[in-house]
Specification:
By secondary structure, the chain is an alpha+beta fold. The chain is built from nine helices and four strands; from the N terminus they run E-H-E-E-E-H-H-H-H-H-H-H-H. It has a four-stranded mixed sheet, covered by helices on one side. The protein starts with 5 loop residues before the first strand and ends in an 11-residue tail after the last helix.
Length: about 260
């Protein structure tokens, strides 16, 4: 019997067993762990990544000596399923449920993501710069940080987020988390009625779907990112959201340090 492929995840942050500030890194880690796939981590860099994006995954196949470098969390998930390395998390969903799953992920990845980046890069720039560029010497942090800020600032304006006031963006973020909490509260009640042992997932299924990889990632990154104090405060204000995240942490990420409950 051939050995399974070796997986190395490049996270863009120093390699240590801890959550990082990028929700997409944690999303991919959750996907791998939900599938029971072992992997190692390394720092990596956008300039070395396919598509210039963090995270990216290196798959080394012992059977034929081949290897692949993959980028984009959704495409990586689809590749793992196509090659039989991971089960399709959404395989048992109806067409309507798959649409709900996709819409939920889009809400976080294509809307909340930009609100959070406004908070990180526009409102807490120096904390963000020192956090994401900590591996660089300080003079390089100034130069690279300025380039990253200019790029993000242009993106946020072009996408539309920075055309709103800070108060409006806070309102938008809070509204999203309020609705997330409502979904999780309903799912928790459904799981308790079924006596499912306490685990509950955002679509109310008995097992995680792709939506859970995204949701858990946005919760975890929001709680550990020092450049997102407002987001952390909002998330911590919803006990069911915190309970959901802690249960996933305890079951799948027990080797990682748990976030602070008060900050």
């Amino acid at each position: 019997m051939s050995s399974p492929p070796s997986l190395k995840l490049f996270r863009g942050f120093p390699s240590k067993p801890a959550y990082v500030w990028s929700p997409f890194v944690t999303k991919l880690e959750a996907r791998l762990r939900f599938a029971g796939l072992a992997y190692t981590t390394d720092q990596g860099a956008p300039v070395k990544a396919p598509r210039g994006k963090i995270p990216y995954l290196h798959i080394s196949k012992e059977k034929n000596g081949g290897s692949e470098m993959l980028s984009d969390t959704q495409l990586i998930s689809e590749k793992l399923v196509a090659e039989g390395l991971a089960d399709d998390l959404n395989g048992n969903l109806t067409a309507a449920e798959k649409a709900h799953d996709l819409a939920f992920r889009a809400l976080l990845e294509d809307k909340l993501y930009f609100y959070q980046n406004y908070e990180r890069w526009e409102q807490n720039y120096y904390t963000m710069r020192s956090g994401v560029l900590s591996a660089l010497p300080y003079p390089a942090q100034i130069l690279v940080g300025k380039l990253a800020y200019n790029k993000m600032s242009a993106t946020l304006y072009g996408q539309g987020t920075s055309r709103f006031t800070p108060e409006e963006i806070t309102k938008f973020k809070t509204e999203i988390w309020e609705n997330v909490d409502a979904l999780l509260t309903a799912s928790r009640g459904k799981a308790m009625n079924k006596n499912d042992g306490g685990m509950f997932f955002v679509l109310g299924e008995g097992t995680p779907t792709e939506a859970d990889t995204t949701l858990f990632a946005f919760i975890a990154s929001g709680l550990v990112c020092d450049a997102a104090p407002e987001t952390g405060k909002i998330i911590r204000s919803f006990p069911t959201v915190m309970e959901y995240a802690k249960r996933i942490h305890s079951h799948y990420f027990s080797d990682y340090e748990l976030w602070n409950y008060e900050k």
